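Example 4.3 (complexes with small molecules)
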Amino acid sequence: MAKSSTIIYTKTDEAPALATASFLPIIQKFVSPAGITMETMDISLAGRIIALFPDYLKEEQQQPDALAQLGEMVKEPEANIIKLPNISASVPQLNAAIKELQEKGYNLPDYPIKPQNDEEREIKSRYDKVKGSAVNPVLREGNSDRRAPQPVKQYAKNNPHSMGAWSSDSKSHVSTMSEGDFAHNEKSYTVPSATTATIRFNKEDGSVVELKKGLTLQEGEIIDATFMSKNHLISFFENQIKDAKENDVLFSLHMKATMMKVSDPIIFGHAVRTFLKPVFDKYQETFSELGVNVNNGLGDLLGKLEKLSDDKKSEIQEAIWQVMNEQPDLAMVNSDKGITNLHVPSDVIIDASMPAMIRNSGQMWNKNGESQDTKAVIPDSSYAGIYDATIEFCKKNGALDPTTMGSVPNVGLMAQKAEEYGSHDKTFELDASGTVEIVDADGNVILSHKVEAGDIWRACQVKDAPVRDWVKLAVKRARATGDPAIFWLDENRAHDAQLILKVNEYLKDHDTNGLDISIASPIEATKTSLERMKKGLNTISVTGNVLRDYNTDLFPILELGTSAKMLSIVPLMNGGGLFETGAGGSAPKHVQQFEKENHLRWDSLGEFLALAESLDHYSQANNNEKAGIIAEALNKATEKFLLNKKSPSRKVNERDNRGSHFYLAMYWAQELAAQTQDTELASQFKELAEALEKNEEKINQELIEVQGQTMDIGGYYKPDADKETAAMRPSKTLNEIIG
Ligand SMILES: NC(=O)C1=CN([C@@H]2O[C@H](COP(=O)(O)OP(=O)(O)OC[C@H]3O[C@@H](n4cnc5c(N)ncnc54)[C@H](OP(=O)(O)O)[C@@H]3O)[C@@H](O)[C@H]2O)C=CC1
Ligand SMILES: O=C(O)CCC(=O)C(=O)O
Ligand SMILES: [Mg+2]
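Answer. The structure with 2-oxoglutaric acid bound is encoded below.
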C-alpha cells in the first residue's frame, strides 16, 4: 500500500541518479514542513538485477523488487511517484552491469545468450525481465500528457537554441520499406467478448508449436498481428546500402532496440550482417565458434575477435576494414573513437537521434568528424513517414525558428502496455516456414499470417479502458488550451482503422462543442502541425504509444533544443499520479564528462517541473494546503531560474547541475518566504533564504573549484553511495545550510 504521506522519488541510473544525490536532500528540506516524506525506491539497472537473484546473493547484498512494488502501487489511488529516466539496457549494457556487480562481489551468473540447459534457460528468463525497456511499461498505468510549460516555451523564444540551416538541395532523406514490413502485413481485430487465446505456429513440416498460451483478451480490446519479412528486410538493406554509396550520403540506421527489445535487435543484426556480407560469408564458422551475436552490433563482433590468435584476428579485421571501405560511409556515434552507428544497438535510439539529425541540418557525423548529408534508414514504415515529412518540410521552408514557432504537445495512448511497446512477450523470430495464428478459446482463428523462416512475427494489444481514458484526456487538453487536437491515425492502417471506430464512439461521451478535434494520418498530421507551428500556432498531437515517444522528442528538440524541459504527467487511471521527468533519457555521455572533469551538465528542469506537479497533486489529494503553497513557490522559483539563466553550462569550471540546484533552492526559499498565504511557512523559509543569499558567492566558489579533475565514484551501474554523495554535495557551506 502506498502511504498517503509519502511521495516516491525513484533512484535510477547515470546522470539522473547523480543529480538525485544533490537534489533530493534539498527537496526533503522543502517538503518536510508539509508533513511529506520523500521515499526513494531503487529501480536502477543494478538494483533490478540484484532483486532478481536473492538465491545467489548473501543476505546483506539482497534487495527487494522495488519495481514490482511500484507496479502494484500505481494501481492505488494514493500513488504519487516521481519517475526519473532509467537505462533501458541493451545486451552489451546488461553484460557490463553484471560484470561490474560480479567484480563488487555479487555472485551473479553470466547472461546466457544461448542457454544450453534448463538452469541457463531459467537464468536467461530472469535477466530478460530487466533487459530493454522494462520499467516504464510497468509503471505506466495511465496515458501521457507531455507538453512544454508556458515559461519554458517563453524562455526558448527569448533565448533561442541554435538550429542548423536547411537547404533545398540537401540530399538527406528517410528510407523505409514499401512492402513486407510490420506496417504492410498488419491485421487487426476488436475482441467482441472476453476470451483466452493461444498463439500457434503451424510449421510447414506439419508440426505445431504453441508460441504462447493463456493470452487473456478483454471485451473490446484491440489485438493486432503482423510480421517483418526477413527476405524483404534484407533486400531493403541491400538496396539502401547501394543507394547510399551511389549518392554519397552516410548510411544511418535508426531503431528503438531498447524499447522494442525483441524485434529491433534482430533487425539491427540483419543490418550489420548485410553491411558486412562478404565477411560473414567467409568467416561465419569462426564467428559461430566465437559466439558472436550480431544482434549486439559490430562492437560485439570486434570484441569477440580479441579471443583469436593475432594472425587470425588481423586477417579478419583487415577483411572487415576492406568491406567497410567499399561500402558507403556510416554515420558515426563517436568519430574520434571510430564508433559507428552499427556498433551498439542502444547507441542510436530513434526518438532522440532523428530530431538531433533534423536539428543539425539533416546531417550526421562522418568518420572525419564532419557533418554530412545522411540516409536515415528506418525499416518499418509504420511511423517513418513523420520524419520524412519533417525533413521535406525543412527542405522546402528552411529550419523552423525557435523564437516564433508554435508548439506540438502530446496526449499519448500508453496505459497498460498499449500497442507495440507491450509486444515483447508476443514477439517471435520464427525458425521455419508455416502459419502463425491467434486462436480464441472456442478454437476460432482470429488472425493468421503465412510466414517464412527468419521472419519476425508479433502481436500487439490495446485494452478498451485506456482508449476511453485517452480520448477523455485529449478532450480535456483541447478544452484547457483551446488548441486544435489531431488524432494521428491512418484509416488505411489495420490497427488505426479499429481505433478510429472507438475514437469516434468515445468522443460522443464528451462535450466537444466549440473544440476543433480531427483525425488525420500521421504524415498529414505532421504536415498540418508543422505548417501551423511555422505560423506560431499550437496543435495537440493525440497519438498512440510509439508516436507519443517519437513526437515528445521530435517537437521539443526543435522547439526547446531538448526534451529535458518537458512536463510529463501520467494521470493514473485509478486516481494516482506518476510524474515523469522530461521526455528524454539518462544521457550516458554526461556521465563520461563527469568522470573526466567533474562537471555534470545534466539539466534538472524536468525534475523541477515534475516535482511541482507531484506536490500539487499531493495537495489536492490530501487537502494539504501547505503542499500546494510549496508547489506554487517551486513553479515561481523555476520561472526565476529560467529568467536568470541558471541552467547548467556545458563547459567545465562553470556552473553545473549542482550549482543549478543551489539556485533553485535559493529562489524556492525566497518565494516561500515572500508568500503571504501561510505565515508559518514564510517565517520558516525566511531564515533559509537569507542564509542562501548571504553565502551565494561562497557556495558557487565551492561548487566550481572542485571541477577540472577526474572523478571516480566507485562504479558506473552501482556507484559507491558515499562517494556519490560526497561528489555531488561538495559545498560544505550549502550542506550545512540544507542539513
Ligand atoms: N523515460 C526513460 O526512462 C527514458 C530512458 N531512456 C534511456 O536513456 C538512455 C540514453 O538514451 P538517448 O536516446 O541517448 O537519450 P537521452 O535523452 O538520454 O540523450 C539525448 C541527448 O539529450 C540531451 N539531454 C537529455 N536529457 C537531458 C537533460 N536532462 N539535461 C541536459 N541534456 C539532456 C543530451 O544532449 P546534449 O548533451 O547534446 O545536450 C543527450 O545527449 C538509454 O539507456 C535509454 O534507454 C531514454 C528515453 C527515456
Ligand atoms: O522506456 C524506454 O526505453 C524509453 C522511454 C522513452 O523514450 C519515452 O518514454 O519517451
Ligand atoms: Mg522517448
